Amino acid sequence: TAVEGLNGFCTQAALNKVGSADDEKFVCEAKGDSYAWRKLDDVESEIGVCKGLVLKTFKEVSSSKRWYFCSDSGWIKVSVAEGHLGFCTKENLNSWGAVKEDGKKYACENSAGAYEWREFNDLENEIGYCYSGITDALFKKTSTDKYYGCLGGEWKEVSATDFALNAVCSSALKGTFRKTSGNDWYYCAGSA
């Protein structure tokens, strides 16, 4: 065959060698007790064979801008977020990252038992990421003069007074006084 004529016989000594013939790429692989040249698919032709040191890595097919992960069973297509940030797992839950390639930010979240990267919404792009692990008071003002507090793992609109006090009057704060940075005092009678 043309591939053997240009690259030699596929033997144990040539195992995993990549060769070419007739403008196509081939790899020498073991097939049971024998060896044979196998034509590479389009993904392998561009980013290489998924074996050895490439295992457990992410690579981009530059011609299509698609990302792939080299698993034990071969290249699997993954999202742009996964290609840049890695897989969303229990270990990086509630982390977030930006992907320069698409100009978007993503948060790692658990959605119905599955960990996945979720694209930031418009509010998060403006004031940041809010999740249930934030225990300190986090209040932000938007460019349209709306106020939000990170409460119970999500952004909720709050009053200008809540924003100034960096707290929402609730049963937990009932009977307490709070002072704003402008030295105004407020009493919390408890939530309705």
Alpha plus pi helix count: 5
Strand coverage percent = 35-45%
Q: Tell me the helix content.
A: 10-25%
Distance between the termini: 83 Å
Annotation, overall tally of beta strands: 14
Oligomer: single chain
Strand order of the largest sheet: 1-2-3
Mean pLDDT reading: 91
Biggest β-sheet: count, sense, barrel? Answer: 3 strands, antiparallel
Order of helices and strands: HEEEHEEEHEEEHEEEHEE
Poorly predicted parts: none
Architecture blueprint of SSEs:
Blueprint: H1 2-7, E1 18-21, E2 24-31, E3 34-39, H2 42-47, E4 58-61, E5 66-71, E6 74-78, H3 80-85, E7 96-99, E8 104-111, E9 114-119, H4 122-127, E10 139-141, E11 147-151, E12 154-158, H5 160-165, E13 177-179, E14 185-187
Antiparallel strand pairs: 1-2, 2-3, 4-5, 5-6, 7-8, 8-9, 10-11, 11-12, 13-14
Model description:
By secondary structure, the chain is an alpha+beta fold. The protein has five helices and 14 strands. The strands form five sheets. Strands 1-2-3 form a three-stranded antiparallel sheet. A hairpin with a 2-residue loop joins strand 2 (about 25-30) and strand 3 (about 35-40). The longest helix has 6 residues, at about 1-5. It is rod-shaped.
